[in-house]
Amino acid sequence: MKIYFIYLILYLSISMSFAENKIILQGQITNIDDSPIAYVNIFLKENPSIGTTSNEDGKFHLPLEKNNQMLVFSHIYYKTKEIDIKNLNDSIQVILEKQYISLPEITAKSITTTSIMNEFYNNFDINHSVEPANYNVFTRIVSGTEHELEMIEEYYMNLHHTQSHNSTRELIKCRIKPYSKKAKKELEKSYRFINLSKMVSDNMQKYREDVLIKRNEKNFRFQLTGISSEDGRETYIIKYKSITDTTNNGVLHIDKENFGLSFGSFNQFENKNTDLIYFKNKWYLKRVSTQFTNLIGTTVNRVSLYNNTNPPLKKSLNKDFGVEKAKAYIGDINDDFWLNYTHIPLPKKYIKIN
Questions:
Q1: Edge-to-edge strands of the sheet including 59-65?
Q2: What is the per-residue pLDDT across 326-351, written as a single tens digit (0 to 9) for each?
Q3: Which tens digits make up the pLDDT trace of 116-132?
Q4: What is the DSSP string of 208-264?
């Protein structure tokens, strides 16, 4: 009995110590004028694969272990800020200062747009060949028209990316809430994960944007517009435009040190923004947001938050995103499950109607 009691005390001590070292950090990021800053990258300095992003209201949600690591707040238009996790409580207000993008002295540095793009293409496989890549992913999909919200979907999953057609996923949690009569009817009958299936295009090794393929280089015009600092690394900012297709344009942020892609804004078939993070000598997905309007006039906005995980997934995962019916996975929109996992908080414009 004494031995059992000792084990119990040890277990409770360890559990309490573990709990004390855990923190669910929530907060808001603003500028000096108290305006919220959306889409700020928030990650551990020593392990950039762990992190999140702020929503449209500048708010974020991130479970962490309390230790001596630094938490980094990074945004292209603001100065990077670092805060010691050990000194944090469960709520924090972060103020970022404006960062002014500089124009490079191209002549003095012997740097041209062409030379940057050549280095980018020549180093693409070295920088971005991350096969296989394993992620924990949070995805939100909001569907609606200009005047009516139709549906909000949220998913938490494990994802195994490969360059071939073997990318698989394990859906852990899902919650879907319809708002319009049309969406409620669709959900009751045979709603499937069609919008979720578009996540496969996030895998750059498998579905690379036209401008990222070297043989297509001649079809684009490139312009170096400035140098910025992102995630503690300097990047070249290059605008591009297709010669043959006026809808195909965007911006590339290319790392000055290894010429990897740290951010890409692609406007062609849909508006797509891809954020990447440098980790263990490779560039991994961090956040992807897309927007498109389908044939019946519904606008679909998706944001996917990727956290890289090193251990391979142990179980055989489902290969299909679009075929499976959603009914079996539907969860309560107010489920407390989400509070213990990294996700992007709902913007207040949706909370009001939840």
A1: 59-65, 22-31, 91-96
A2: 666 666 666 777 888 889 998 888 87
A3: 999 999 999 999 988 78
A4: --GGGSGGGGGGEEEEEEEEEEETTEEEEEEEEEESS-TT-EEEEEEETTT--EEEE
